[in-house]
């Protein structure tokens, strides 16, 4: 083989590629894979920070099945997810469509992100004070118009819905911008053809916009559902799981078992179950909503 042919041979990109992905791969191994495997192992043990793990097999999972508080936490979490995702998705799609059809202002888009940039704890405290039964401005307005005041965080009927509403307010702008990005990918010629055919706004939305948004909506749903199942800080700051167990979500119960009672093995078992629920929910959403397909041809 001639020297010129050797010189023209392309260099292997394997080495530089490994160097580039090494930091991310190391972070994944240290902060994701190892803790996941460690948690799965601890779920089969009785463990606290003062001693070594003692293998107990599936006892933690048996105790979990018989734990009424655990099942109540699952029920409360599912109720929160349904309310939060329902409110957030419908409002985000509507807001994104309004932005897409009525305005392209960068200032408006940026302002929608402001609540998302505020820490969850700050948002929770802000709404906790505003919705307070005695001194909250919302109840002051309700009382001024002659309606009975509402204990938003103190009434079992309102607690979960109120927490869902608070987190919807915080995440709405971010979710709407994700949907708006999907709307930007739909060619204007599709809407022009629909207008020529005499389709109105409502029919255009149901027959064109929504089907073409499906891949983006799947992504949005996977992200928001995963986040909703892991709600913790808003509940911890506002209700602490009360009144009674009315707002004790699964993440809060896991935290209490691990750090308040020292039952790290049992908490790890519940974490494994939560992980399986999230994985199953994501897989089901992607399969049922055909995430890998698009109606845009």
Automatic annotation (TrEMBL):
Pfam families: BPD_transp_1
Transmembrane regions listed in the UniProt entry: 12-34, 78-99, 111-130, 172-191, 212-232, 264-284
Keywords: Cell membrane, Membrane, Transmembrane, Transmembrane helix, Transport
Span of domain ABC transmembrane type-1: 74-285
Signal peptide (from-to): none
InterPro entries in the cross-refs: ABC_transporter_permease (IPR051393), MetI-like (IPR000515), MetI-like_sf (IPR035906)
CDD domains found in the cross-reference section: TM_PBP2
GO cellular component, one term: plasma membrane
Protein known as: Carbohydrate ABC transporter membrane protein 1, CUT1 family (TC 3.A.1.1.-)
């Amino acid at each position: 083989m001639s020297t010129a042919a050797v010189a023209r041979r392309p260099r292997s990109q394997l080495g530089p590629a490994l160097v580039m992905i090494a930091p991310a791969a190391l972070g994944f191994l240290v902060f994701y894979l190892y803790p996941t495997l460690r948690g799965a192992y601890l779920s089969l043990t009785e463990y606290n920070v003062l001693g070594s793990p003692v293998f107990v097999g599936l006892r933690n999972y048996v105790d979990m099945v018989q734990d009424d508080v655990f099942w109540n936490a699952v029920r409360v979490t599912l109720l929160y997810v349904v309310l939060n995702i329902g409110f957030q998705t419908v409002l985000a799609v509507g807001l994104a469509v309004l932005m897409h059809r009525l305005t392209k202002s960068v200032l408006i888009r940026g302002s929608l992100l402001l609540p998302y940039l505020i820490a969850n704890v700050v948002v929770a405290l802000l709404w906790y004070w505003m919705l307070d039964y005695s001194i909250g401005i919302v109840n002051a307005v309700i009382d001024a118009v002659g309606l009975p005041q509402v204990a938003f965080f103190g009434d079992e009927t309102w607690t979960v819905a109120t927490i869902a509403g608070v987190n919807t307010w915080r995440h709405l702008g971010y979710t709407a911008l994700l949907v708006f990005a999907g709307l930007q990918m739909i060619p204007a010629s599709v809407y022009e053809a629909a207008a020529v055919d005499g389709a109105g706004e409502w029919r255009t939305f149901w027959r064109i916009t929504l089907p073409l948004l499906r891949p983006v909506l799947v992504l949005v749903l996977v992200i928001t559902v995963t986040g909703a199942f892991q709600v913790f800080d808003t509940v911890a700051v506002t209700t602490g799981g009360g009144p009674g167990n009315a707002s004790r979500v699964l993440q809060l119960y896991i935290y209490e078992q691990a750090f308040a009672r020292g039952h790290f093995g049992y908490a790890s078992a519940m974490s494994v179950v939560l992980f399986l629920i999230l994985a199953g929910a994501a897989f089901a959403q992607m399969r049922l909503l055909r995430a890998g397909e698009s109606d845009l041809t």
